[in-house]
Amino acid sequence: MTKREQRLRDVIALLRETNGASIKELASTFSVSEMTVRRDLDTLQERSLVTLVAGGAAIYNGSRNDAKDMKYELHGEKIRELTKSTGLAGKLLL
Question: Taking the complete model, does pTM exceed 0.85, yes or no?
Answer without folding.
Answer: no
